[in-house]
Amino acid sequence: MTKCFYCRNQAVTFRPYSGEYLCKSCFLKSVERKVQRTINKYSLLEETDIVAVAVSGGKDSLTLLTILNKLERHFHETKLIAVTIDEGIKNYREESLKFAESVASKLKIPHKVYSFKKLFGYDFDEVISILREHGLDESSPCSYCGILRRAALNIAAKDVGATKLATAHNLDDEAQTVIMNFLRADYIRALRTGPRLEKIHAGFIPRVKPLIEIPEREIILYAYFSNLPLHTQTCPYAQDAFRNDVRAFLNKMELTRPEVKYNILRINDRLRSVYTCLERELDLNTCIVCGEPTAQELCKKCELLKILDEIRAGTRKT
Ligand SMILES: [Zn+2]
Ligand SMILES: [Zn+2]
Q: Distance from the CA of 185 to the center of ligand 2, in angstroms?
């Protein structure tokens, strides 16, 4: 039997990047400590913050809510509110919505659900079927969903009076995003990727990613050991081929170079701090239709809704 590096109990997992064997209880504590260190290192949360936690009901977001709730006992004044975006995707969102509801209520954290339908007038199923029917689905469904979900989360965070919006991006998500930005030579987006996104507009709730230093594999394990419900339905639209390629590449690299994903995070931190002079380019305007922050005159969400509304009204010129 392999023993835990810290307490000599039976080890249940091994961390290739640090060489540690850990028992269940030392593993859980170590993940929580690591999240606390990330929060401190990047000044993600302050004592007086009201934190909207984006909870989709998947393993990452349920883990985030559970850990923040534990840490919050140390940050006495920090207030947590769980917010869930219901995109309106049949046979996918129903189960995770229930999980979000049940975990939030078990932790006694207030929970609010915001739907695309109510906010924007369309379910995501309708958005995609309209775009497909008119041959307008040039990008992957994930990118349209991302546009609407980002907008919805900002609206939700403002609605609950939050001063920060916490999302559950993990080390794998972040490393993939950094590499994708590099491969697209997209430096504006590269500068926007990181553990915290500042208040770059009066109507923008700053975003923080407390799980950014936790590998996906450890989140799965944390959720499992914490008896969090496991979302089994997969999104019918998930088909981000670019991300899938990058994910496979990084996972392969990691087999022989266990620290590679952390190194990607480090180099991105470095680049961001060196290129802060470019940050002025990140200044945002106010969308002329909805008043949300945007880089153009009209935000991406309103641009998409305009197309959908014109199709529905039969006024769209082709
Ligand atoms: Zn131990
Ligand atoms: Zn807008």
A: 26
Assessment of whether the complete model's pTM goes beyond 0.90? yes
pLDDT computed for residue 188 by the predictor: 74
Give the CATH number of the domain where residue 183 resides.
3.40.50.620
Q: Strand pairing of 111-115 and 79-86?
A: parallel
Distance from residue 292's CA to the centre of ligand 2 (Å): 6
What is the span of the domain harbouring residue 292? Answer: 27-313
Q: Which ligand is nearest to the CA of 285?
A: 2
Model confidence at 199: pLDDT above 60:
yes
In angstroms, what is the span from residue 163 Cα to ligand 1's centroid? Answer: 37
CB contact set of 52 (below 8 Å; sequence gap of 6+): 81, 82, 83, 153, 156, 157, 160, 162, 164, 165, 166, 205
Rounded CA gap, 52 and 80, in Å? 6
